[in-house]
Amino acid sequence: MKLKVKYMSRSSWKRITDRKYTMIDIKEKDIKGKASLLYIKSIEEPLFKVYGKKRIIIANKNYYWLQIGIENENYWITAMYDDNSKLIQYYIDITKCNHINNVDPYFEDLFLDIVILPTREKICLDIDELTKAFDEQIIQKEEYDLAISTANNISNMILNNKEKFDNFCYKYFNYCKKIIENE
Fold first, then answer.
1. Would you say 128 and 134 are in contact if contact means Cβ atoms under 8 Å apart?
2. Contact 155/165 with Cβ under 8 angstroms?
3. Per-residue model confidence as pLDDT tens digits over 114-132
4. For residue 169, which of 15, 79, 134, 180 is within the disulfide window of CB 3.0 to 4.6 Å?
5. Nearest Cα to 73, choosing from 15, 140, 146?
6. Dihedral angle, C-alpha 68, 69, 71, 75, nearest 10 °
């Protein structure tokens, strides 16, 4: 077990057989970073997740993954949309560090993840991996505490401002989608 590095372009994702991708700058009052949109033109087989009794397809033909990486934050947002541009879920990776650059932004994954469904249901994933990483001294106590507090803070921020957050993500989804459609 070690810290993983994950890239915004997801170029190593073999399941996707044909794609379109674009990346743009985010420059708002208090937010600076990158947004990207991966359009899945074709895929070997759909990808689904099971949360309790819910089975949700998160990647399929004509689906979109919007990623948002923000400078000086310890989370990375992936908003997943279906073939009708309807939100499927928010997947928030808790990060040690976000590296925002103009080529292929990436983050160092701190194991812990949060899923927020359109129903406002919050699902915490991989707390066991975070604990194991701490127990095996892959991460320090400060990083463990950072992961827990960041997960709580970002999920509370999203849930307490859901409409505003939805609008923010959908705005960048639409910006990127227009670029992809005009290519």
1. no
2. no
3. 999 999 999 999 999 999 9
4. 79
5. 146
6. 100
Calculate mean pLDDT across residues 57-71. Answer: 98
Tell me the fold of 5-181.
Answer: FomD barrel-like fold (2.40.380)
- Three-state SS at 124: strand
25, β-bridge pairs: 34
* Residue 74 burial by Cβ neighbours in a 10 Å radius (0-12, 13-18, 19+): buried
**150 phi and psi angles, rounded to 5 deg:** -65, -45
Sign, CA dihedral 78-83-86-89, equals negative
In this predicted model, what pLDDT tens digit does every residue of 154-172 receive, in sequence order?
Answer: 999 999 999 999 999 999 9
Half-sphere exposure of 137 (CA within 13 A, CB side): 0
pLDDT number for residue 132? 96
Average pLDDT score over the chain: 96
What does the chain come to in residues?
Answer: 183
